[in-house]
Design brief:
The protein is an alpha+beta fold. It has 11 helices and 17 strands. A hairpin with a 6-residue loop joins strand 1 and strand 2.
Length: 455
Amino acid sequence: MHRILGFKLGAIALLIVLLLVPLSMIGGLVSERQYQREGVLQDIARSASYRQQITGPILVMPYTKVWHEWKTHDKTGERYQEERQSRGRLYFLPERFVLNGKVATELRARGIYQALLYRSDNQVSGAFKLPARLGLGDDLGFYRFQAPFLSVGISDVRGISNDLQLRLNGTTLSFAPGSGDERFGSGVHAPLPVLDSQGSQGSQVLEFAFDLKLQGTEQLSVTPVGRDSRVELSSDWPHPSFVGEYLPSQREVSAQGFKAHWQTSFFATNLEQALQDCVRKASCQGLTARNFGVSFVDPVDQYLKTERAIKYALLFIGLTFAVFFLFEVLKRLAVHPVQYALVGMSLALFYLLLLSLSEHLGFATAYTISAFASVSLIGFYVSHVLRSGLRGSAFGGLLAALYGLLFGLLSAEDYALLMGSLLVFGVLGSVMVLTRKLDWYGVGKPAAMPANDSQ
């Protein structure tokens, strides 16, 4: 008797291990389809524009520093003055920086895949407060300044969709292509008139404003360049993910969209030090890394959810086989390992159906159809294996409950471990209660004849 029970349990364990082969193949297919989807999304972004980051405006003042040094002639020993020159740039961040943006989203489809694009309408304004004598003190006389310009870094300039015009102290100026400074990467810059006496008559205030319409994909972020920076973004997208170094101080998220407000200062961002490091080291990673914004996340990622469902496949198949085995030992029915294998293959086929249907339907709809098809097929088959329509219906009901619990595990990611632990504990407790009086030595006895079972 022990050998028969041991053989049955060993065969079930072997079947579970063998079922990992088709499950791993389906998992590989999920990764392949996900890779193809990512390739299509990159193609769409390449044709439109990638994620966008706005850095600026930053006031740049090129200069030539001229001074004289005393030299001694090698032969005559006479002293003379030699003119020396060096070139450089002064950089000034805004005293106040304000950005108000309204973002509209749209879906672009290519085949069965879709990419989310956005169009943001941004109003940028603020003011520069230049220090007296540009902070150079008595050395100001050694500097010869060229025409300054306002630099705005934009990560993908292909997304600019309007004619940029700068309003500076009541004067309208045009932007030109390129950021004007390789440190800030791609972008635009606006040449400015020579400032009044190069700032020698006390501090100067430069009020600026411009409108920026920008198209992008996946993410929109802003570098808070102002001593006092205030950014407000609103959109019709109801599933935002706020990213970057700073979370919004206020936010409202609803089914109609979101509205978020950020406010930072130099004390929090230390952006002046980051700009100085950028100038000295010719690397502005520390400057551009101090950003915040929003990522437009698609909450219905069918590949991710299907991949997560497959991770629970071993637990799901084990629980189903446990219920199947419980029917077998309690009703003293002989179930062949081949019948276990057919039920297991039906369970594995569920994941393939889920993957293929979710590419055309919503994940919840695809899950419902796949689960209904799997429960109907297995319930019909098991009703004949267990020689009773009632038993088959009961088995199908338990299987449907398991599918419902699996969907709950997929939907509640934060509580997946807790729910899974409670599920296993509940199943184990049910098995122990139902088999508490079972004579395990008699499990291997010959099964009852069909004729007697029907009486």
